[in-house]
Amino acid sequence: MAKKGKKISKWKYRYRFIIYNDRTFEEVWQMRLSKLNIFLLIGSLVVLLIALTTVLIAFTNLREFIPGYPDGNMRRNIVMNAYRLDSLENELRIRDQYFENLSSIISGEEPNSYNPEQDTNIAIGEISFATSLEDSLLRHQIEVEELYNLSVEETEESEKSSLDQHFFTPMKGIVTSSFNAIENHFGTDVVGSPNAVVSATLDGTIILASWTLETGYVIQIQHENNLVSVYKHNAELLKEVGSFVRAGESIAIIGNSGELFSTGPHLHFELWYNGTPLDPEKYVVF
Predict the structure, then answer these.
(1) Domain total in the chain
(2) Are residues 184 and 80 located together in one domain of the fold?
(3) 0.85 cut: is pTM over it?
(4) How does DSSP classify residue 285?
(5) Measured between alpha carbons, how far is 279 from 157 in angstroms, rounded to an integer?
(6) Residue 151 located in a structural domain
(7) Is 204 helix (H, G, I), strand (E, B) or coil?
(8) Helices (H) and strands (E) in the chain, counts
(9) Do 44 and 81 lie in a common domain?
């Protein structure tokens, strides 16, 4: 016990560190330390140095200089590759569903229901659709120019006689919203049975088969006499751009796609003649 106590006491022995003037031997500065004090001081400096290094690496860009640590460009590439992989998997799933439905239709069976999953990464209510100054000015200019333009109503009556042909009903159902050019509703909304098949109203060629944020899955058909029919808010498209379809041929499945102008499963059907919208209910019996 005496030896152990003697060893501990040696750590507490104080030593004096003195700095003298080399010419006058005057004492300039002195410090009294023990071995224990020196050990604690050095230990504290080491801990402080480690803490400062950790903070600098964690909260500054110095961590990018560590060998093997990904820099900003590499992290962005990793995130973008993850997004692309997720989109590719979704496209493959949609393609497989498309081929299955196409096979079912060829076999005379009803296609399987297809309800696209909603993206849950971002809440729809939190999305802000801001408009630019240029877009607002263009909208105002168009509204002023078309304020007293009666060409829609006048042209529709004069062109009705030139469209004297049989229109196939795209989908049997109940009309929930009619054509109203004043409110910029240039089509007819029809609600039908779940997973109902949407058919082409006339013979023509597919000129658009795509997806938009406002109207979801959209398909457009170019007919004779510069007539175009539009089918919006579909759950799935059964035809591709460039395909020729006959009147009554299946082209899509009724759905509720689109995040802005859709409130339930229905078909939004439009007819355009020479760039002018027509009231579909005057040509088609739903």
Answers:
(1) 3
(2) no
(3) no
(4) -
(5) 10
(6) no
(7) strand
(8) 5, 12
(9) no
